[in-house]
Design a protein that fits this description.
The complex is a heterodimer of chains A (301) and B (458). By secondary structure, chain A is an all-alpha fold. Chain A is built from 15 helices and no strands. Chain B has 18 helices and 13 strands. Chain B is an alpha+beta fold. Chain B has two domains: 67-178 and 341-399, 3-Layer(aba) Sandwich (D-Maltodextrin-Binding Protein, domain 2); 182-336 and 417-457, 3-Layer(aba) Sandwich (D-Maltodextrin-Binding Protein, domain 2), CATH 3.40.190.10. In chain B, strands 2-1-3-12-6 form a five-stranded mixed sheet. Chain B is globular. Classes of the chains: A mainly alpha (301), B alpha+beta (458). The A-B interface holds A 85-87, 133, 136, 146-148, 150-152, 154-157, 159, 234-235, 238-239, 242-244, 251, 254-264 and B 7, 11, 14-15, 18, 22-24, 26, 29-30, 33, 36-37, 40, 44, 72, 76-83, 86, 102-110, 113-114, 117-118, 120-123, 312-313, 373-375.
Chain lengths: 301, 458
Amino acid sequence: MTLLKGPAESRPALPATKAPNRVRRQIRLGRVLLQVFLAGGLFVMLYPLLWMLASSVKPENEIFGSASLWPEEFVLTNYPEGWVAGQSSFSLYLRNSAVIAILAVIGNVVSCTLAAFAFARLKFRFRGGWFAIMLLTMMVPYHVVVVPQYIVFRTLGWIDTILPLVVPKFFAVDGFFVFLMVQFIRGLPRDLDEAAEIDGCGPFRVFVRIVLPLTTPAMVTTAIFTFMWTWDDFFGQLIYLNDFTNFTVPLGLAALQASTYGSQWGKLMAMSVISLIPTTAFFLLAQRRLIEGISTTGIRG
Amino acid sequence: MTKYKSKLVRSILVAAVALSTAAGMGACSSDDNKASDGATTTDAATDTTGTDATTAQADNSGDSGGEAVELQMAWWGDSETNNKMISLLGTFSEKNPGITVIGQGADWDSYFSKLSTQVAGGTAPDVQQHYPSTIQEYFSRGALADLNSFSNLDLSGIDQNLLDSLTIDGSLVGVPMTIMTHAFMYLPDVLAEAGVDAPAASWTWDDFAQFCKDVTAGLGKTNVYGCADGSANDAALQVYLHGIGKDLVTADGQLAFDEADFVTWLQFWADLRDAGAITPPDVAGYDSSSTETDPMIQGVSASSWRYSGDLQGWQPAAPSEIQMVPYPGVVADKAGWLISGDLLSIYSGTKYPEEAAAVVNFFINDTAVPAVVTGRMPAKEVMQEALRAQGNADASKMIDLIGLVSDNAGPVPPLSPAGWSEVSNLLGVVAQEVAYGSSTPEAAAARFFAEAPAMLQG
């Protein structure tokens, strides 16, 4: 302390800046502590992911054998081996998952926006009642409807195809997204619609020209969540897809989990890492548009 | 073309029905679905056979001269099992031209969620894998066909006691593809070090007590014992009770032994513990569920209470070679029993019962099949010998052990009722209280008999 103080006092010009300096230093210390605390929290939250990442490059016996995250022996063989460990290669699983997820995103975005526009802007008989029924569908637990749904799709001959996973999305069955969009559209100023109507727009043109462009953030939110939920959906894909060639990423991962001795943990972890890439990429790409959307509509509104 | 068209029209109609019923009126939809359900099944049947009307009849009898039959078969397992099963199904198709079997594999956890949905939805796989603990439920839901009714299913050579245990209300609901039995595992190297002979294939509980004392004394070490404490092991208890003509539970879920039997059991182990012949409670855990916690694997015991199917998983982790004999008390007049592993069943709603039976028959009889799942032994001796011929040492040991038990195999005891896992925990608790000296065998038995019946009822 004295060492530091000595030369500082000897300089005449410093005292004026000294006090703010100390405050700044305190602020900086506070920020450093905060950052350390947050980094600690981040580490705890990320630990499972880091563990997965680390296990994917460890040899099989080291995964549960050592507590260290850093692999003693660094192996990359889990990736190529896991890729072909299933009945089909992982590229097929990824492609199947991508087809389902992308169709589901398109279906949900198109149908939920249309349904939401109707609920928010159009006047029709029993609108309140239909809206209530739509909300009720959100409250019915999925497992209650599994069997009736299965029977319907079986009767249609859709078992072991992707249709049961995709077609309903084109009929706005996800009440949550309809509700989200309805709330969003209700927040848009009605003056815009009225102005368009005065200019001669019918309901559909109002939707396409006025509401749709302003609803981008809600559509992006819908797209992101639909993609993630569809990509991660295990149960639906489990019961509707039978043939190994129709398997998706979650089913492919489940097949790597052994039911007897000696799970293939390394390969499982490696493929889990791979399966996270599309969701993360989709989120990062779409998230930018989400923020953009909010800022632009914020300025206009 | 017309077939496609009518299918499309039907699809639209059904969709319309489904949509109109789905719109909030859940209560009446089930009837509608059932009605359309029945209609389409018959439709589908005419669809597939109608085009080749001439061969339709011959088709069902299994000649399969005309139209190709496509079956679904479901099993659980990892990707390795999936690969084996798919290649076996290929072999089956080669030997049975005209029948294609499409496999559905899932891991153990998801297998039964999927199967129960399929059964409820009225379209389950024609051939299904089952487990003794699950089969009753599926049979009571009407999902399983009676396998006695198939003439092309060769069951000869399968232990009759096993088949009896799988017969519910006169219906044979599954056939064992694999079997196992109780295995008293020991390490010959440690026995040699102690200068003790290996246990005989048929030995009594007194022989066992002497064995433990001899091994511990012969080793003269402070931290290695003759055997793991088995007082809390319900499988060992069951074999002991079987030896005195009793059992753990009756078929209707009552305790099938009395307090005095249990006191004798706990006292037997307490005496061995006092003599220092088995692992004391502070040395070895009582959790026998995993390889790592097993006293024999940890090197504090020369032997352990296991099942034959464990060998393949236990051997790589063990300090030296493992050998197996039946549990003590499994002697000629007080026989042990075989345990069913994976079962194969036929869906009651299958369109091709004869062909499905041919698939089951292939899996239990064709020597191309042995050991689909590593560590599980086929049920028939012919199949076991075919597996032994492949030269796997572990498999040979398992087959030998199964052979020893099956020579005198008795009836398979009833399956544990729903509340048994709780009772099993209680057994562990009271046995450990005695082991740690905080309770006497009499007090522990009294507590067990006060609490266990309620658990079995609940």
